[in-house]
Amino acid sequence: MMDDEDTEKTLSPEDPGDPFTELRRHANSSHAGKRRLNIILAAITEIVREHRGPSSESTGISCTEYFAGLMTSLEGSDLDSKADVLALLMMVLPHTPAAPLRAKFKPIAASLLAAGQAFEAQETGAEDEGGGGSWSAPVRHLIEAVGIVLQCQSATLATWTAPAALQCLNFVLHHLEDRRAKVRRAAQASVLRILDGHASVTPLRERVFSLTA
């Protein structure tokens, strides 16, 4: 489960609880992908600090702030950048408190599903042209992110009759039959994550079991 909002602390690059600690060690690595992620992370950090104002420069940045900054970046980027942002998002999302994920569920869901549609459109176009899709990793990250966000919602009938939650659930369930084994496994893991704590809600249970029976 997510960290409790009341116990969330701010993070610094030296903080052992910083979810980006391992990545930061590779800031000057010969690995191009890790260098690129560090550049994006540094840019997000600067954006958060600018938004806060100069008086808080010495204060560490919380997981919630990183999450919000990454979600904003996800909305306005091209597919390559979206893939990088999603990789960073999956480093911080498991440490993000549940409360903001509930409070901002609708816009979070809309952004994640829009990214999913963008990758799906690109993959469909590549298949039509005789090529193969190359977006397996970001699609897995999206499925995992949707699963975590859904798991954090209240286990109530109201949650699982709301359009946003059902659309997110359908996104995950759709990938249970994906041609790529890693994507299927990500979808399976997300279904189990969602059911953990939510299986007592009848509409959710019936929807999942009708497709997996």
Automatic annotation (TrEMBL):
InterPro entries the UniProt entry points to: HEAT_RRP12_N, RRP12
Domain RRP12 N-terminal HEAT: 23-196
Domain of life: Eukaryota
Region span, Disordered: 1-21
Protein's name according to its UniProt entry: RRP12 N-terminal HEAT domain-containing protein
Protein source organism: Octactis speculum
Taxonomic placement: Eukaryota, Sar, Stramenopiles, Ochrophyta, Dictyochophyceae
